[in-house]
Write a structure and sequence with these properties.
Structural class: alpha/beta
Number of domains: 2
CATH architecture of the largest domain: 3-Layer(aba) Sandwich
Shape: elongated
Bound molecules: ligand ME8
Number of helices: 18
CATH class of the largest domain: Alpha Beta
Strand order of the largest sheet: 3-2-1-12-13-7
Strand content: 5-15%
Length: about 500
C-alpha cells in the first residue's frame, strides 16, 4: 500500500496501556487494542517497521488480593489471566509484536531499575516520611474518599493513621518544562481537548509523588521491583508500570531495539490515565535525559445505554460474546466506525445488531456477493489488478494518521455506497444478458470496474477489518463468489 507522497519514516513504535490482570478484560480494553491494531496495520502497510507493544501491569496489591480471593498463588494466578488476555487478542486479530509483563524479572526489571538509577543520579529522588490512612486488609494506604462510614468498604475495618518512609520523585521541578513541551506540541496530545485539560492541570502546580513502598511481607519475591540499593523498598506504580515502554525495548539490558524504536511514535491511552502519561511519565524522561514520546492519543470511554458498564446494571457487554456471535471484524468495525475516538461512545446489543445488519450484511457483504457472483459467471478469468487499484486515498490516509478512525471508515463506506449506485444505475446484471454484443461488452467492463472498486474497498479495509479484506482480495484473485461474509443473524 502506498499513500500520498510524504516523508515516510521507516520505524513506528506504538504502545498500549498495560492492563491490570486482576479481572477479565472488557469491551473498553478491547476498544483500546482495536484502535492500536488498526493503526499498527496501517503503518505496516505503509512500509514502516512497526513495533506494537501490549502488556500487563502485575506488581500491585490488587493482584495479590485477587489471587488470594481465587485461592491461588499470585504468579500462577497471573499466568492464567495473561493467557486469557492473549486469547482475547488472538480472537480479535490483534497483531501485537511483543507482550510485556511487569513481573518479568529478565525483561522488565532491569529497565525499570536502570531508569530509577538515572532519576536518582539526577537528584530527583529523595526519601520522605509519608503519612496517611492505612488499611491493614489492603496492606496499602487508602484515601478519605475510599471510606464508607469511616471504614474500608472491602474489609469493613477502620484504617489506621500510619507513617512510613517512601522515596519521592521531584515532579514539581518539571511543571514549567512540561507545560512548554506540551504547549509547543513537542509532546503532542490528541485531541486538543485533552491537551487543554492537562495544561490546565499542570498550571495548577504539580506536587512531588511517592515513588516507592516498603516491601510487604505478604508479597512474594517475584512481585514488586526492588529499589536499587534499598531492598527494603519496592517501586510504586510510576517507575514500575510506566517504565514498560522502554524496558520492553531492552533499555538497561540490551538496548538495540531501544536505539531503533525510542522515542515512541504513539502511546495510546484511555482518558483515565492521561495525567500519568502526560505529566509523570514525561517528567521522568526529562529527569533521566531521555527523549519524550512524540504523541499521546487519548481516547474516550465506552458506555452501554449511556451508563458505565456494571454488573449490577446488567449492561456489561463481553467482547468474547460479541466475537463469538458476529466474528472479529464485525466487532472491530463497530468499535472503529460507531465510537468516536475522542469522545465517550455508546454501545448496546440492539445498536450493534442494527449496524451489523444494515452496513455489513446488507451493505458490504451484499455488494461483495453480487459483484463476485457476476464476475464468476461472466468474466473469463480473474481481473488483473494494477497497483493503483489498491492504493489508499490521501483523504483516508490523513484521517487514519490523525486518529479519526470513524471518519476513515466513513470514507470506505462511501466507496461502498458509490459502488452500489453504480450497480443500480448501470444494471450490468441485466445488460450482460443482452443479445446486443456491444451492450454485453459494456456490461462486462462495468463488472470489471466493480471488481476493481471492490479491490480498492478491500485495501482500505485492511487495517480495520483484516480478515474481510483478505477474503475479498482472495475472491478477486480466484474470481469466485466468497462464502457469506456477514451472515444474517
Ligand atoms: O489503568 N472504555 O490499567 P486498567 C474505553 N494498569 N476504554 C477503557 C474503558 C472503557 N469503559 N475502561 C478501561 C491501568 N479502558 C494501568 C495502566 S499504563 C503504564 C498502566 C481502557 O486495566 C483504557 O485504555 O485499569 C484505559 O486507559 C485502560 O483500559 C485502563 O486499564
Amino acid at each position: 500500500m502506498r499513500t500520498r507522497a510524504r516523508n515516510v519514516k521507516n520505524t513506528f513504535y506504538l504502545t498500549t496501556p498495560i492492563f491490570y490482570p486482576n479481572a477479565k478484560l472488557h469491551l473498553g480494553h478491547a476498544y483500546t487494542m482495536t484502535l492500536a491494531d488498526a493503526l499498527a496495520r496501517y503503518h505496516r502497510r505503509n512500509d514502516e517497521k512497526v513495533h506494537f507493544l501490549a502488556g500487563s501491569d502485575e506488581n500491585t496489591q490488587k493482584m495479590v488480593d485477587a489471587a488470594a480471593k481465587a485461592g491461588a498463588e499470585p504468579i500462577a494466578f497471573l499466568d492464567g489471566i495473561v493467557q486469557n488476555f492473549m486469547k482475547l487478542y488472538a480472537s480479535l486479530d490483534i497483531s501485537y509484536d511483543q507482550f510485556i509483563r511487569t513481573t518479568d524479572t529478565n525483561v522488565h526489571w532491569p529497565g525499570a531499575q536502570a531508569l530509577w538509577e538515572l532519576l536518582l543520579a539526577a537528584g530527583d529522588l529523595y526519601k520522605k516520611e509519608y503519612e496517611g490512612l492505612y488499611c491493614v486488609g489492603h496492606e496499602a494506604f487508602i484515601t478519605d474518599k475510599d471510606l464508607v462510614d469511616g471504614k474500608c468498604p472491602d474489609h469493613g475495618t477502620e484504617p489506621e493513621q500510619l507513617r512510613e518512609e517512601n522515596y519521592f520523585f521531584r515532579l514539581s521541578k518539571y511543571a514549567d518544562a512540561l507545560r512548554e513541551k506540551i504547549a509547543s506540541d513537542e509532546l503532542r496530545i490528541v485531541p486538543q481537548s485533552r491537551k487543554k485539560e492537562i495544561l490546565s492541570f499542570i498550571s495548577g502546580g504539580l506536587e512531588d509523588v511517592s515513588f516507592s513502598r516498603p516491601r510487604r511481607s505478604s508479597w512474594p519475591r517475584g512481585l514488586g521491583i526492588p529499589v536499587p540499593g534499598d531492598d527494603s523498598q519496592v517501586m510504586y506504580v510510576w517507575c514500575d508500570a510506566l517504565a514498560n515502554y522502554i524496558s520492553a525495548l531492552g533499555f538497561g539490558r540490551d538496548d538495540a531495539l531501544y536505539q531503533e524504536f525510542w522515542p515512541a511514535d504513539v502511546h495510546i491511552i484511555g482518558k483515565d490515565i492521561l495525567r500519568f502519561h502526560a505529566a509523570i511519565w514525561p517528567a521522568m524522561l526529562l529527569s533521566a535525559g531521555l527523549p519524550l514520546p512524540k504523541t499521546l492519543f487519548v481516547h474516550g470511554f465506552i458506555t452501554s445505554g449511556g451508563k458505565k458498564m456494571s454488573k449490577t446494571l446488567g449492561n456489561v457487554i463481553d467482547p468474547e460474546d460479541l466475537i463469538d456471535t458476529y466474528g472479529p471484524d464485525a466487532v472491530r468495525y463497530f468499535l472503529l466506525r460507531h465510537i468516536s475516538p475522542f469522545e465517550d461512545g455508546d454501545i448496546t446489543r440492539e445498536g450493534f445488531k442494527e449496524a451489523y445488519t444494515a452496513n455489513l450484511t446488507n451493505g458490504l457483504g451484499n455488494l461483495v456477493a453480487r459483484v463476485m457472483k457476476l464476475a464468476e459467471e461472466h468474466l473469463s478469468g480473474p481481473v488483473k489488478l494494477a497497483g493503483e487499484d489498491t492504493i489508499v486515498s490521501g483523504e483516508f490516509a490523513e484521517k487514519v494518521e490523525t486518529f479519526r478512525f470513524n471518519e476513515a471508515m466513513d470514507v470506505v463506506f462511501e466507496k461502498i455506497a458509490v459502488a452500489d449506485v453504480f450497480m443500480t444505475e448501470r444494471e450490468p446484471y441485466k445488460k450482460i444478458k443482452s443479445a446486443d454484443a456491444s451492450e454485453k461488452e459494456v456490461a462486462r467492463r462495468d463488472i470489471e470496474s466493480l471488481v476493481r472498486q471492490l479491490a480498492s474497498i478491500a485495501a482500505h479495509l485492511a487495517p480495520a477489518m483484516p480478515a474481510t479484506s483478505k477474503a475479498i482480495l482472495a475472491a478477486i484473485r480466484e474470481n469466485r463468489k466468497p462464502e457469506n461474509l456477514f451472515p444474517r443473524l
